[in-house]
């Protein structure tokens, strides 16, 4: 098994600061971001120290003792009975309460809301913290988003758990690619040489881990997609481990599990659901030291109430309504899905009995799998499979931490550990339902005010995001970058997106280096199949106005957007703007000719399907140019001199 490098840590961004080189922007935009986010709301005091006295201490490994814990700065510095407080430290009396390491969720999609509402990262982050979850893996972002998200959090503008951002890999036409975001979101690899190259390429974004979709089985709901072969996956794990990064998979079949385990991944995600695990796979898991992260919550049959009364109370209002609707009108569940869930439960039991480390993941963000609440629910599901409360908590703490942090700096209560802690009324290591009574939480030694976060979750308004004033010129063709030759003038990288599906449309983006203005040429090959709803196929160039489209752009000083264009006279073209807080973009159609023409579109001309929503120039995130066409058609569009105008 390859040796993991100890030179890097997946927590380096939290404790050693951000590198400015992580943001692929020219200095003007980076200065805008850092200037806006220069005043942390929750800065860690260097002299921060406190003593927790008379607590039941569950250390994460299964052991519980009675005693005191001293925290100085971000670290636990002493554990024992009758500890003396430091001269500058405060005392927290914890009689009748249990101190635990912060919980983990190793499989989330933070940019998905799990319901029909637009994503609200502030509320999503808060949902994990109020449920005691201090570390999560996020599988819903791509490289350009990592740095601005880290900056948003480390600045104190958003209060969040520790987040490990993952670069994603799959095969051509594999699971994880069918959403239509292409290689801008999920790298497609089919051979070891390509896997070596693209894994090294993604390291320039400083991901915290790697997520690989190895299985294409779609549970009988739709035709299966392609699987990843062993040598290709081994190439990914080799490069990743050399960089000190853990590798988790999407693995749902026994055959896929054997391939992934032999390729030295760190953990299998989701769980084997096509058949019962056999002795060969158990032996492989032990030999290769691979852990198992089932996501029972996302597969649990929904035709029966899933959440108990205390869990329902802790949900956000819109989530409570959704769960109550399922109780009144239970969804139908197919026999094959119920059988698959039973197989998954049995496999968790078999693997745990065989001594394979079981950890916690949920796939939260998928429809009905609520952020934060599902993590606690997943822990409780283990106790229904015969795990003791202490064993289930170990899965959520030490076992999960060991997968993502090979330096073993968190996930336990021990001297030298990072002080991610929760204080819970009662004894959750004996009665798992006491986990609903989280009283206090510390993140790297800093107390997080849970009441403020609960108040935030109860609000209907979106959590505010910074809005940055940006320059007038979007694309002039002048920006240069060795790695990514096509950039906006303020350094963001345009991305391609198409309609979703296994057989989807394709968009080629090139730049004419010989023509003044270096025009962008978009060539769309529309999917050669009939759209299930009889709609046109589409492909688009999406231009983030801030790095990764994470923060909002403030274009209130401008009147509209202008661009020079050539295209097919009968082509279907649209300009779209995506906004924070809106599920639907603002849109307008435009025409193009073989000859160049400059088009001016006022913001007031853009329309939204929600007639009550008004264009807000301070919440815009991206500008898109979309091409549409019939199945099998080819369409093109040439763009240059894209800019806002007064």
Automatic annotation (TrEMBL):
Keyword Hydrolase: yes
Transmembrane segment boundaries: none
Limits of the Amidohydrolase-related domain: 98-445
InterPro entries (alphabetical): Amidohydro-rel, Metal-dep_hydrolase_composite, Metal_Hydrolase, Metallo-dep_Hydrolase
Stored SUPFAM superfamilies: Composite domain of metallo-dependent hydrolases (SSF51338), Metallo-dependent hydrolases (SSF51556)
Keywords: Hydrolase
Domain of life where this protein originates: Bacteria
A GO molecular-function annotation: hydrolase activity, acting on carbon-nitrogen (but not peptide) bonds
PANTHER family the UniProt entry points to: ALPHA-D-RIBOSE 1-METHYLPHOSPHONATE 5-TRIPHOSPHATE DIPHOSPHATASE (PTHR43135:SF3)
Name of the protein in question: Amidohydrolase
Organism for this UniProt entry: Zymomonas mobilis subsp. pomaceae (strain ATCC 29192 / DSM 22645 / JCM 10191 / CCUG 17912 / NBRC 13757 / NCIMB 11200 / NRRL B-4491 / Barker I)
Lineage, uppermost ranks: Bacteria, Pseudomonadati, Pseudomonadota, Alphaproteobacteria, Sphingomonadales
């Amino acid at each position: 098994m390859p040796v993991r490098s100890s030179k890097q840590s997946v927590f380096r961004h939290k404790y050693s600061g951000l590198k400015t080189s992580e943001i692929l922007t020219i200095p003007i935009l980076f200065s805008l971001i850092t200037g806006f986010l220069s005043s942390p709301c929750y800065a860690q005091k260097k002299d921060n120290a406190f003593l927790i006295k008379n607590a039941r201490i569950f250390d994460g490994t299964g052991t519980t003792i009675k005693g005191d814990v001293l925290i100085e700065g971000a670290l636990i510095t002493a554990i024992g009975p009758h500890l003396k407080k430091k001269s500058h430290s405060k005392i927290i009396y914890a009689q009748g309460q249990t101190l635990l390491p912060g919980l983990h969720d190793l499989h989330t999609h933070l940019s998905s809301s799990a319901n029909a509402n637009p994503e609200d990262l502030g509320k999503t982050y808060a949902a994990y913290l109020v449920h005691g979850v201090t570390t999560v893996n996020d599988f819903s972002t791509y490289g350009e988003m990592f740095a601005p998200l880290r900056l948003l959090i480390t600045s104190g503008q958003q209060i969040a758990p520790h987040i490990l951002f993952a670069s994603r890999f799959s095969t051509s036409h594999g699971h994880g690619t069918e959403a239509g975001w292409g290689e801008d979101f999920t790298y497609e690899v089919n051979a070891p040489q390509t896997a070596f190259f693209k894994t090294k390429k993604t390291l320039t974004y400083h991901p915290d881990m790697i997520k690989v979709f190895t299985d294409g089985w779609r549970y009988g709901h739709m035709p299966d997609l392609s699987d990843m072969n062993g040598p290709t996956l081994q190439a990914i794990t080799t490069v990743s481990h050399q960089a000190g990064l853990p590798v988790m998979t999407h693995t749902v079949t026994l055959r896929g599990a054997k391939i992934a385990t032999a390729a030295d991944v760190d953990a299998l995600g989701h769980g084997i659901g096509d058949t019962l695990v056999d002795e060969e796979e158990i032996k492989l898991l032990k030999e290769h030291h691979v852990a198992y992260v089932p996501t029972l919550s996302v597969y649990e049959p929904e035709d029966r109430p899933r959440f108990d009364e205390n869990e329902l109370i802790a949900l956000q209002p819109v989530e409570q309504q959704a769960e109550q609707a399922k109780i009144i009108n239970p969804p139908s569940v197919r026999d094959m899905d119920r059988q698959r869930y039973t197989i998954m439960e049995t496999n968790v039991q078999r693997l745990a009995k065989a001594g394979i480390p079981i950890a916690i993941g949920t796939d939260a963000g998928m429809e009905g799998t609520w952020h934060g609440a599902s993590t606690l629910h997943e822990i409780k599901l283990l106790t229904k499979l015969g795990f003791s409360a202490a064993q289930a908590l170990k899965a959520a703490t030490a076992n999960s931490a060991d997968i993502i942090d090979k330096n073993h700096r968190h996930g336990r209560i021990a001297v030298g550990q990072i002080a991610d802690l929760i204080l819970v009324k009662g004894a959750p290591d004996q009665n798992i339902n006491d986990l609903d009574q989280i009283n206090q939480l510390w993140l790297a030694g800093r107390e997080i005010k849970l009441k403020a976060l609960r108040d935030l979750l109860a609000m209907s308004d979106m959590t505010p995001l910074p809005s940055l004033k940006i320059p007038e010129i979007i694309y002039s063709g002048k920006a240069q970058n060795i790695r990514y030759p096509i950039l906006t003038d303020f350094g963001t990288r345009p991305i391609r997106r198409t309609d979703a599906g296994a057989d989807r449309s394709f968009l080629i983006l090139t730049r004419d280096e010989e023509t003044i203005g270096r025009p962008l040429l978009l060539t769309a090959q529309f999917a050669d199949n009939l759209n299930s709803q009889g709609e046109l196929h589409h492909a688009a160039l999406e231009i983030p106005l801030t790095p990764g489209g994470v923060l909002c752009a403030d274009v209130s000083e401008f009147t509209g957007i202008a661009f020079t264009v050539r295209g097919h006279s009968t082509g279907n073209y649209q300009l779209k703007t995506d906004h924070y807080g809106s599920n639907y973009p603002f849109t307008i159609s435009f025409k193009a000719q073989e000859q160049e023409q400059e088009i001016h579109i006022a913001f007031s001309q853009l329309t939204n399907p929600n007639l009550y929503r008004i264009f807000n120039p301070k919440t815009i995130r991206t500008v898109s140019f979309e091409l549409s066409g019939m199945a099998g058609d080819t369409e093109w569009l040439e763009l240059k001199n894209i800019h806002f105008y007064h």
